[in-house]
Amino acid sequence: MLNTYGLRFTNGSSQAVTAAAAASINNLGSFTVAMWVNLTTVAPAAQRNFFGKSSGNNRVVGFINATTISVQYGSSVSAPTATATTTNCPGVAANQPFFVAFVVDAGVASPKLFTGSWGIQASEPSAYSAQTTGSTTGHDDSASAWNFANAGTVVTTNTLPGNVLSIQVFNRIPSDLAEVREMQYDPWNASRSGCVISWRVGASGELVVLDESGRGNHGAVAGAPPLVVDPLPFVKREQPSIAIWKRALFAPGGGFIAAWARGSNMVYQPGVH
Fold first, then answer.
1. pTM across the whole model
2. Average model confidence (pLDDT) across the chain
């Protein structure tokens, strides 16, 4: 077990990490959002967002509420949607790290959810309460940013309660369940095909999250969520690459010395302690 960094978010705040609108992350009809989080509750009183991107009715959102986890692409009644009762989602529990992946192939196939933990390989829910292929006619979210740990428009009522440790976004769906599990146990592998955001949340300080995908989709941190240490099993510390050091040297909120102290290049190795 090795300590890694994350950011702690609190509902009632305007906290978020935002990736500005860009060609590489706009209008992703097929996409995967994969995250490791450690939430203080998995039954919040109302909707709390893992992510949101919205421009009018053209929204993309993944969230948890009192009883379910959901992903939705668009706002109409025909929007592609997947919803599952939280108790049907393997590995999801409060006050321990768990993995969640939101998979959308809008207008082609029904969205899917995958969850797991350190001891539980990611799988789909045992049952969905709603799952709709839907339609994406006229969808255009290019005017909006991606917000993580909050809604498409940052508000105080949808902030995710707890620690966010890693975030990756892909412009495609996984090829199979085995690849979902690779995303689970190797969540900072930015070389995987189609990766458009790869964030080690907290590794570059409290003001910015550096994007290692090579697409330049860095995250701006709002609302001053504090830096936290959260243990992640099956992680091996490796020598940071030259590229990471160069980015860390100029990173706000920490810079070179902080990156050194945090061991900014930590890579998941399943089975390696």
1. 0.84
2. 84
